[in-house]
Specification:
Number of strands: 6
Distance between the termini: 16 Å
Radius of gyration: 20 Å
Helix content: 40-55%
Number of helices: 11
Structural class: alpha+beta
Strand content: 5-15%
Oligomer: single chain
């Protein structure tokens, strides 16, 4: 992952992270997802522990997961990003804005006790109900909008991975060939468990494997992927109007979560240490 991309995703995540839904589960505490508490530490630092893993220190106390495990991450880049989340908290800790910490907790505690193959299967399940594969039959304006906006991404995906996906206006959606699923399964086996955790999170936000892979492969920006995932909703808003603040809130919330997931995938894939200046603007 390039330094430019790392900085861009980090800035986007940081800029949008403060507007997220308090209902989103994301805390290193045992309290509920909506909990806030007074900041209890002054300094945040990272240190390298056993096996070359990195730890997060709040003053002199080591961070732990909700499951009670020592909070460790596989590389310096991810450690810096998580430490930045904790350091960015003000007088009140808003756990629901700390998405990278949450994804690390999920990877470490594995609350659903799934193995890598099960995670890949769950991710690929979304391909059968992919947002960009379901098309409307009317009105004509929306039919044309979906075709013009979604077809280029779908065709890029098919060419990029040499697969057939297709689209359909049937309630059952398109029939995804077994060869396509096998190709994606083989590709996803190259991901480590941490990267799969992030990818699955992005897919659940966008409701689309196509858009998620397009973004992870840097064919789409976060903003483009989010807008494409909300295409029909944006069309309806343009037609009927909307409550402006609610629309903006939802849009920024989805961007923040998607940006955090994409950043996590890339950081979890880093095999070498990254200098602290990469996380600086």
């Amino acid at each position: 992952m390039s330094a430019t991309m790392l900085r861009r995703l980090a800035r986007l995540h940081g800029r949008l992270g403060g507007v997220l839904s308090p209902g989103h589960t994301c805390t290193s505490s045992r309290s509920s997802a909506t909990a806030e508490r007074k900041r209890f530490y002054q300094d945040v630092s990272i240190s390298q522990g056993e096996g070359g893993l990195y730890e997060i220190n709040l003053d002199r106390r080591k961070l732990k997961t909700p499951g009670g495990k020592l909070f460790t991450v596989p590389n310096e880049a991810l450690a810096i990003a998580v430490a930045t989340e904790w350091d960015a908290q003000k007088d009140t800790l808003r756990f629901y804005t700390m998405h990278l910490s949450t994804l690390c907790n999920t990877a470490l505690d594995n609350p659903t006790q799934r193995n890598k193959d099960q995670m890949i299967t769950a991710a690929l399940k979304f391909l059968e109900t992919d947002t960009v594969c379901y098309r409307v039959e009317e009105p004509d304006a929306l039919v044309e909008l979906q075709k013009n906006a979604w077809d280029p991404v779908l065709h890029w995906m098919e060419k990029r991975y040499d697969v057939t996906i297709g689209s359909s206006s049937s309630i059952l959606g398109p029939e995804i060939p077994k060869a396509t699923k096998d190709t994606f399964r083989q590709h996803l086996t190259s991901y480590n468990l941490w990267s799969l955790t992030g990818l699955e999170y992005v897919i659940t936000q966008l409701k689309s494997v196509v858009l998620s892979m397009g973004m992870i492969d840097r064919h789409l920006t976060v903003e483009q992927a989010v807008l494409l995932s909300r295409l029909e909703e944006e069309y309806q808003i343009g037609f009927w109007g909307n409550v402006e603040w609610a629309h903006d809130y939802d849009m920024y919330e989805l961007r923040a979560r998607t940006a955090a997931g994409a950043l996590f995938v890339h950081l979890a894939s880093e095999s070498s240490t990254v200098k602290r200046k990469l996380m600086q603007d």
